[in-house]
Amino acid sequence: LMTDAPFDEPIDFTYFNLWHHWGRTAKFGAWMQGPDYVQWHGAYEILHDLAELREMVADKLEKAGE
Q1: How far apart (Å, rounded) are the C-alpha atoms in residues 48 and 14?
Q2: DSSP label of 1
Q3: Domain limits of the chain?
Q4: Hey, CA dihedral for 48, 49, 50, 54, is it positive or negative?
């Protein structure tokens, strides 16, 4: 379902942003007691990208016939 080449599909970028960028933003926002960075620049973006990622996975599974 996935290719071996890194970052050649939109799902790769969505996963990376979810894990690396938004996760770090929420974590560091919490450490620095910045509720805006925890909620709107962290948790909200995590949930947004997670919904996109789930949709991409469902599309890939559907195309694969599973």
Answers
A1: 10
A2: -
A3: 10-64
A4: positive
